[in-house]
Amino acid sequence: MGEIALSTWTDWVANRQNRDMLTYTPEAEAFRVEVKAWLTENLPKGWFDEGFEMSHEERKKFNLEWPSKLFAGGWICATWPKEYGGKGLTTLEGVVLAEEFANAKAPMRADFFGDTLVGPTLLQWGTEEQKKEFLPQILSGKMRWCQGFSEPNSGSDLASLKTTAVLDGDEWVINGQKVWTTQGHHADYCFLLTRTDANSPKHAGISYLLVPMRQPGVEVRGIVQPDGTAEFCEVFFTNARCSKDNVVGGINNGWKVANSTLAFERGMSATTGYRRFEEEYRIMLAAAKENGAIEEDSIRQRLMKYYTKYQILRYNGLRSLGATLEGKKDMGVIALGATNKMFWTEMHKEAMELALDIFGAHSMLIDNGPKESGWPGAQRDKRRDGYPVSPMMSAFFFSRSETIWGGTSQIQRNIVGERVLGLPKEPKGADEK
């Protein structure tokens, strides 16, 4: 590709960013103005200035104060019904809200597991008593949550879980182990899958419990990752307890309830999720131009492939939004939701391998690596025990896990094959028959 072709290509990419905008109703645009005004008033002074940065102490203070501001503004879980503390926003208003927070690069959630997973699950499956007890504390940010699904031998085959809950008077007594429990060391409560009927088929004997984490019989151990983060935990339950009323969706109905929770996890970023990939693309393209990697045919091809894929992700998000607004629930909509998670995680894993090739071997050194401290997807800039990792390498490590959590790519392919395409189910192993 010569200089003229290269210039034409990069100009085309830049121009495409501003095309194909979604048309919103006048009411949605008026709401957008309201959200922008609130963000302008409440974000730190200088937030929108080019090159704005906060010191470590300023960032720490902001992180502590921001959830209270979100709560006071009514933006936490704003799409929830008003009777449960939300604003009762329409779907389109919820999209506008997410877009403006994304445009401002402002945090939108107080607690991902509470706001996005267990909260919507309670709205769908919970009793009125459960909603009144837990939803206000999720909204106010006073209660933090973790997810207790995976076990050492029950990850992709989650229905084989062994953790048990036995009713003892007015309480469930819980014994077992969970693993990869994100933020388990900070959580006040865990939404936990347990086996409550050992004699039922494995999918039919599971219940979904809400369990206090700060009690005797609950031990949490952090699992340090290669990039130094320890957000994943092991959790051990030894005669831990919760109220018999803390079953969500009915006893032995936990499998259906859990699938609702996973659907919320996989479908949250339909119209804004592509933006961090767009930002990564911008960083990689600029670096490739600066260090000459753009002259390599394979680098140009892979950059264009990444651009094409995150645009597909963007348009699939718009398709999902359109189907939601029209109330469609046909097989095409189901297939789109089932494939999106697999699509973007595999795409991102390839993209982070491309980033390594663009920046070269020095990207692995903290002193010589990419200078973008706000690299999208980076979990932390430096390891706690002193072993440093660049923001880009942190994002690289995390991209490997994205193809696992929320359902591995292998399992997603089975779901698409069996439930969407109608292919025969995989043969069961000897221990499953």
| Class from secondary-structure proportions | alpha+beta
Question: So, CATH architecture of the largest domain?
Answer: Up-down Bundle
In CATH terms, the superfamily of the largest domain is Butyryl-CoA Dehydrogenase, subunit A, domain 3
Into which percentage range does the β-strand content fall?
A: 5-15%
What is the end-to-end distance?
57 Å
Please summarize the sheet with the most strands. 4 strands, antiparallel
Strand order of the largest sheet: 2-3-7-6
Number of domains: 3
The CATH class of the largest domain is Mainly Alpha
**How many β-strand stretches?**
7
Mean pLDDT: 84
Overall geometry: globular
Oligomeric state of this protein: single chain
Detail the poorly predicted runs: 1-20, 381-385
Total number of helices: 12
Helix and strand topology:
Elements: H1 3-16, H2 26-42, H3 56-73, H4 91-104, H5 112-125, H6 128-140, E1 145-148, E2 164-168, E3 171-178, E4 189-195, E5 206-212, E6 218-222, E7 233-243, H7 254-267, H8 275-291, H9 297-326, H10 331-359, H11 391-402, H12 409-420
Parallel strand pairs: 1-4
Antiparallel strand pairs: 2-3, 3-7, 4-5, 6-7
